[in-house]
Amino acid sequence: MTRARSGRERDDITLDALRERALGNDDVRIHPETLEHQAQVAEGAGNPQLAANFRRAAELTDLPDSEVLAIYEALRPGRSSAADLLTIADSLEQRGATMNAVLLREAATVYERRGLLQ
Asked: Whole-model pTM?
């Protein structure tokens, strides 16, 4: 099933609805179930890395855009300390974004080894 974050079905998101201003922000945001479906398709096509990316994205759908962008910025080389990345990981884990928490912890380890921390 493909639906918006608001729960509105794909077929209900039309140009007419947009023109009538009947769509809200969550009507054009992806639903985590849609990302999970994409992950299953990726796995079926033999691409487990892409599937993992879709699943991490699904975990982030509940976060505000500003926080997702802040995490992205924190992951850029030289922008964060290991402690910063681990703090973000702990916060994500507490909110159920466990795959993203693992990614941030791995990044802290790899960045330290490669000299990419702040």
From this structure: 0.83
User: pLDDT (tens digit, 9 = 90+) per residue, 17-59?
Assistant: 888 988 888 888 888 999 999 999 999 999 999 999 999 999 9
DSSP structure string for 26-50: GGGSBPHHHHHHHHHHHHHTT-HHH
| Distance of alpha carbon 70 from alpha carbon 21, whole angstroms | 30
Give CA–CA dist 29/51, Å, rounded: 19
CATH topology of domain 64-118: Hypothetical Protein Yqey; Chain: A; domain1 (1.10.1510)
* Cβ contact 85:105 at 8 Å: yes
- Would you tell me how many other CB atoms lie within 10 Å of the CB of residue 64? 9
The number of beta carbons lying within 10 Å of the beta carbon of residue 67 is 14
User: Three-state SS across 55-113?
Assistant: HHHHHHCCCCHHHHHHHHHHCCCCCCCHHHHHHHHHHHHHCCCHHHHHHHHHHHHHHHH
Decide if 51 contacts 43 (C-beta within 8 A).
yes
